[in-house]
Design goal:
Keywords: Cell cycle, Cell division, Septation. By secondary structure, the chain is α/β, with parallel strands linked by helices. 16% of the residues lie in helices and 32% in strands. The N and C termini lie far apart (55 Å).
């Protein structure tokens, strides 16, 4: 039976649960979901690559059999990692046949059914990584287990990553991702905000989603109730 494509969004990417992001599917029209997903991926190439997903149909959406198979295949073709399913009616052997964990609690707790998964790491209390030279386009700087402090400009096309906080005492262009191991208490501070993308523990905001009054201003990014917010300093 043909399914009419929805007029609005075909899916939502919800906040992370354990180390997973929930893909809440809002229509059984898999082509519509994948088309909108392609548009989202085009905005932030490689940002979602390898992201573990829990596939969860919204209320009243039937997603099983061939539709579920097509969606999971489409996600994997786009370098996403569907690992579990939630909210499917009588989660059947078809779920296991697609390599998905059968219930969300198994995914969250890392039970034997899905293999052991570690809880998101908190930022280590060790020394911060200090960068005093400009970070050029194409460069990636990662502070593993702690904070990243940059005292020079960050160019468009550059990428900063830290398990803890990110401090930029100059202009922040490019991409900045703090709390990349799941630390929701991580923050991003900068003297001049001109970033292409900022993210904390998987929650992100693109440049066109940043309020005009904050562009070029000293700002701080943090999470409140699982939502990323920006405030002037």
């Amino acid at each position: 039976m043909a399914v009419n494509a929805p007029a609005g969004a075909a899916f939502d990417l919800k906040g992370r649960m354990a180390p997973f992001t929930v893909l809440q599917v809002r229509t059984a029209d898999v082509d519509a979901v994948l088309a909108q997903l392609d548009a989202r991926l085009a905005q932030v190439p490689d940002f979602f690559a390898g992201m573990p997903l829990v596939v969860a149909p919204a209320e009243a959406v039937s997603l099983e059999g061939a539709s579920l198979d097509a969606l999971v295949t489409g996600l994997r073709e786009r370098s996403l990692l569907p690992v579990a399913a939630s909210g499917l009616p009588a989660e059947t052997a078809a779920v296991a046949g697609l390599g998905l964990i059968r219930n969300l609690e198994a995914a969250r707790s890392g039970s034997a059914e899905g293999g052991r998964r570690e809880a998101p790491a908190k930022a280590a209390a060790g020394a911060a990584r200090l960068v005093t030279q400009p970070v050029r386009s194409g460069q990636q700087v990662y502070a593993r287990g702690g904070d990243l402090v940059v005292t020079a400009p960050v160019s468009a096309g550059a990428e900063l990553m830290a398990d803890g906080h990110i401090h930029v005492y100059d202009t922040l262009r490019g991409r900045a991702l703090a709390g990349v191991q799941g630390d929701e208490n991580a923050r991003i501070f900068c003297r001049s905000l001109k970033a292409e993308l900022i993210a904390i523990a998987g929650q992100y905001r693109l440049s066109d989603q940043i309020d005009a009054e904050l562009r070029g201003a000293a700002a701080m990014a943090s999470l409140r109730d699982g939502e990323l917010e920006l405030n002037a300093l």
